[in-house]
Amino acid sequence: MLTHDLPVVSAIGIVHGCTLISWFLFVAEGQLPHSLIQDRHNRAPSPPSTTPLQNRDFASGNRAGIIRRVILHVHGSFQSERDFFGICRRYLHCPSFEPDSFVSSMLLAKVCPLLQKGVHIVPQPHLPPPPYPFTNMTIYRLMQWMNTGSKHKSKGEVTRLVQAVLLAEDFNSVDLHGFSSNRHLRLLDEDHAPGESSGNSEVVFPDNWKVSSMDIEVPTRTKTNQGSSQKYSVPGFHYRSLVEVIRSAFNDIQAKTFHLWPFEQIWHDPVTGKVQQAFGELYTSDSWINAHAALQKQAPEPGCKLERVIAGLMFFSDATHLATFGNAKAWPLYLYFGNVSKYARAMPNSGACHLVAFFPSLPDSIKDFFLTLERTSRKGIASLQAHCRRELFHGCWNILLDEAFVEACHHGIVLRCPDRAIRRVFPRIFTYSADYPEKALIATIREMGRRPCPCCLVPKHLIDRVGTLRDARLRASQLREFVLQKVLQVREAILKQAKAVDGSFVERILGSDSWVLTINAFAEKLSGLGLKQLTMLVVDLMHECELGSWKSLFTHLIRLLYGLPTGALTVAELDARFRQIPSFGQGTIRKFSSNTSEMKRLAVRDFEDILQALKCAIPVFEGLFPPAHDHIVSTLLFHFAEWHALAKLRLHTETTLNDLERTHMILCQKLRLFSRKLCPDYCTVELPKERASRLQKQACDGAGSAVPSLPSGGKVKTFNMCTYKFHALGDYVESIRLFGTTDSYTTQTGELAHRALKAYYPLTSKKNTINQLSKHEQRRRRLRVIDQLPAEESCSSRAQEPSPRSNTTTQVPQHFLPSHRTSPLDLFSMLRDQQDDPALKGFLPDLKNHLLHRLLHVPLADQDDEYSGEERNSVIIQDNKLYAVRTMRIHYTTYDMREEYDFLHLGHQSDVMVPTGESGPGCHPYWYARVLGIYHVDVRLLGGGEGFQNLHVLWVRWLGVSPGRRFRLAVGRLPKIGFVPTSDPAAFGFLDPNIAIHAVHLIPAFTDGKGTHLLPAGKSVARREGEEDDWVNFYVNIFADRDMFMRFAGRSPGHAHSLPHPPAGEMNNKDDGLLGEENDEDDRDGSDMEVNGDEDTDDSSSENDTDACTDVSGNSDDEDGDELNEFEEANVDDLSF
């Protein structure tokens, strides 16, 4: 009997099972379900034969219309429903496990149990629940308290001891008789079950630490029968098996949050209807989707029909000092799983970080070994040391990428997944985050050689052309690929023919592309997977921008200020302005150091604050340079902050990626303009701090007097764009498309993980530090795994299907006020006691007008009308009292669809913004106000028949847009606002807290100064404590955080429902004619540096912004976006891996 082979079709919708499915279809009269005759691109497949079944020539014994077995190969995609924000997911295949409950459990593909029979799976060791490995719960709790929490047992730790240990129901002091912490720590360190020998018990923790020695070949430049090299052994490489770490991770309770199927995140803007892809998590990135598709096309293992999924590996490594003083340091390697959400990975105490190795450093004694070698000069020793360091690093990676790991990459690991289904898991390395010196080490290239980039072959002398089309073409066409044959040829010449590691022979073959003679472990071990290993070296925003290109620019701006005739006084003015910048948010923007220009131990967060708070940079630098140069500096600072805000978004769409690409081009043009037009007009020398550091180093080298000082007292310094950190600015768009947003793989995550190591260090004896650090990590990890067993068993015993994700979002209160009423204010007493304060003029009528609007439910757009005195008298305030509080929270949805809040505190952070409700062209999207009072008030209408209602009220002082001031992102200027004069009846008013959408960070416009024409001089409730006058104008810091920026930049999923109309799209300006190849050459002489959108084409370019603001509405542009918290300040008392 023949089987009719139907054409291969794809079905959009729900597809159950694996990619290749055997279905029994009952087909009659040649008809198929219409839903199956479409593919994912809506293209009809080749139709089946039109000959009726009864007329076909089947083998004997077949009759027309007989039911036949049909093999249908389904390669269909699956698209979920949209959620409240318009987000849906598009999978290559219907997933069988989805941890977010975004897809209903009824729609998930079913894993057939029959396919799992006979499959060999490595059994995971049985781990007993607490009090394992101790004898009773009393000792378990005590040891758990000792090995977790803070390294300093503070008041909080003592409280935790009492609450978690001493008062526990299973605590029994009798169990502590004969207690010894050393003995029980040894129990915790054992690999096998207590009381059992290693020969007859299973290894309970197979992912334990191992120690190995590394043998490296050192070229000796002497020919012998054994070759021209000697072995040098470096002991103390501590590591954990990557395969066992993967097994343990899938056995961990956190595996329930693993995303095993990548998907495209699609955003349907509910207002504009535009459909575009959104980029955020690694498992929604193009690289993972492509890797998953390639894996499904790969031939399955013989006899295996298990689902194949990917374990996405993300590595971080960076050397760190373990203490403030001394030279104790460690070089850890961290592993994160991209299957876990980046928001969980960013929290140091989430358990998402896996410490898997400590790279050893070359011992100091290796120099003694070098001295025993013949024909070795001082320069040769330095080259040998650099070579040995590379060999050691890649030798360690050869151990980590062992045979088991390579086998797993090619053939997978059979694991039981969190839904209890068995799947074949394939490890894939997606990202490796490191600073530039370590990137050069990983890529086996020379630091800042002729071609310094680890990913492409752009020459060093062309780096300053970053942002041009020629640069983009060079990056795309000259990708770096490891040249194994050349490296082997050079190594053979050195190790057998006694060539020098830094000789002309090496330079001739490898020097042109800046290669070194170390065999790259990643290229050697993983090349068979068809992956481009060097693409894993993702951008590093913290080191390359905040501590790299931005620091270089900021430092040179300080040098330029010193180059002015009044240099020292101007720098002092800069420092004074920085100190007047107010703080904002919960650590988002903090008070700056005493003298910011000195950059004393300036941490990365301080540089980031200076940048994103153009709050700092633009208002602070304004007016310090001559007018012709001031415009260049201000626009450069604006576009740098704009680029930084876009590069650091935690959710991108196609629109914002295009904006990032354009902003990058504009920024690079502004940098070249700054470098070629402004910098040559100044004689810039090193800063006092730089000069002192240089002289100190010369003194240490014994050459303090060898280099005479310049008459200016310092060495000449110029602004240099030919560095890798400026070159890396051009890699962000491609990196985000490939691997998701930068917060997913920022080195700041690894820096936070360092805090746990530094917390362990005081617990060591300071001898054999790495060994002790690995033991402390192991103890905490084991206790965490044991401690989660009861919770895991509780979860698994429930057997509850996950509920489908709702199509609506949970309503969160718009604001929150403390409920206490400890500060009652008698209205008439307050008005009588402060009758001379102009701020209280009209307080009571304005309050009753506002309460009438609220009680009568008058729309915001119709609240301009005032009520008569008789109508106001109908408002009854209970006991004529207001109940004042000093704090409140404003809740909002961020641009990346997360719930956040702003904390308002009277007198400190009390400025808010509200929507204008106006949608006309040129209208500014927001009104701004300073909150002067936060009140509870019990109120009712006379004769209304209802009881008193409790209303929350804000008393505010309004700020209006500066007259004639035009704000657009393309213009490169911040919105400028100022207090409405008290002569205007609308200077003060009342506000419903539900209307406030966000706190706002206001920076004084220092060049406009202070005045008393807006409010008479003296103390007033409208001023903060100690103030007797007001800043005439303020700048709205749209770069305070990412959510604030997106509210001005354009539409985003989290803000899709917050605007009544689409934004004007000021970011998407037309090409200014500077992006074409013809302008590349013009850039060389700086003739085409200006960007149309950045030129001050405003007809008010010379306006006097010191005039009082008289209108609360203004003319500007965009809105939309949402905030994103900075990395949470990790509590060192609660750090764990």
TrEMBL record:
Chain intervals with Polar residues compositional bias: 794-813
One Pfam match: Plavaka
InterPro entries xref list: Plavaka
Region annotated Disordered, chain positions: 38-57, 786-817, 1053-1137
Domain of life from the UniProt record: Eukaryota
Acidic residues bias spans: 1074-1085, 1091-1108, 1116-1137
Name of the protein: Uncharacterized protein
Source organism per UniProt: Pisolithus tinctorius Marx 270
